[in-house]
UniProtKB/TrEMBL annotation:
The keyword Amino-acid biosynthesis does not apply. This is Cell division protein ZapB. Homodimer. The ends of the coiled-coil dimer bind to each other, forming polymers. Interacts with FtsZ. Residues 6-61 form a coiled coil. Keywords: Cell cycle, Cell division, Coiled coil, Cytoplasm, Septation.
Length: 79
């Protein structure tokens, strides 16, 4: 009787060890995915900063061209 109980306990312990091993593997995979996503987020933030700077530069160029065009139109009206 006690030998059967011991076998059942041993089986449950082995099942618990197997479950823990699988969960540890899953945790490692999730950590890798997390790191990959963190890197992607950092790259996206860097790209966003770059695009914001480029957008600002293009807006400034647009204002310069608008000012030049207004100046030329003003000169044409004087003629």
């Amino acid at each position: 009787m006690s030998f059967e109980v011991f076998e059942k306990l041993e089986a449950k312990v082995q099942q618990a060890i197997d479950t823990i091993t699988l969960l540890q593997m899953e945790i490692e995979e999730l950590k890798e995915q997390n790191n990959a996503l963190r890197n992607e987020a950092q790259q996206a933030a860097g790209n966003q900063d770059s695009l914001v700077r480029e957008n600002q530069q293009l807006k400034e160029e647009q204002h310069l061209w608008q000012d030049r065009l207004r100046a030329l139109l003003g000169k044409m009206e004087e003629v």
